[in-house]
Amino acid sequence: MEKKYELIENDYIEVLDKKLYRIKALKSFNGIKKGDVGGYIQSEENLSQAENCWISGDALVFGNACVFGDARVYENARVYGNARVFGDAHVYGNARVFGDAHVYGNAHVYGNAHVYGNAHVYGNARVSGNAHVYGNAHISGNAHIKYGVFTIPIVTFKEKEYIAASLNIYPNRNKYLLYKKVNKIDGKYFSIFDSAFEYSKKEITKIKNFDTNILTSCSSGLHFSTPDYWAEGNCLIAFEIAEKDIITCQEGKIRASKCKFIEEICCK
Questions:
Q1: CA nearest 108: which of 67, 149, 144, 82?
Q2: Residue 29 domain boundaries
Q3: pLDDT by residue (tens digit) across 162-210?
Q4: Which pTM value belongs to this model?
Q5: H-helix or E-strand containing 98?
């Protein structure tokens, strides 16, 4: 097999008593040009010579860790131990992936996030911020983890621990206080996605034909998140959502079947 990169023997750093060498592309592929220099690896066991995987910037991959498939590791990220990064996964920023962790599919791990232990992050999942994902945690679908520590597998996408790790909120007496931007017209509140759908101030707002698929995010249902999530709409409203009415939590927002109006926070 024709090699796609080589180790630059006179360009190395030492990390944890290991010598890591910068890599150099021997041919052009998938946006990488022949002669481009990449990040650092301990040996060719850390980065496959096949497919389009690459390590760039000041990223480090060492130990028994391996990057393969079309995966990318870049900026200041580190992958080590027995970790695996593959598929179309991206690890970047100051992220750390180590232990026996696996990151794959279209998953992204970035920011100051740490993924380790036996954790698996896959699908379209995102782990970012200062989140620590470890133990036997499995993060998949369109799940977003940004806060605190997460150690359990996601099964229903409405576990309290998962919602807390995704939105940094907790229920009070089995109810969540969440927010949504709407369009206020003549004193009434209308959905920014369906101008005919009105949120009631006096009664419980319900949706009848909602999507029960817990893996879909932008689908039929009532969507809520934190105040800074929303860009469109002229009025921010606080709603109460019962745990039993949550369908799923994906891409940093909750999709529910019912909600109760609490108060108008601010309007333009």
A1: 144
A2: 5-154
A3: 999 999 999 999 999 999 999 999 999 999 999 999 999 999 999 989 9
A4: 0.92
A5: none
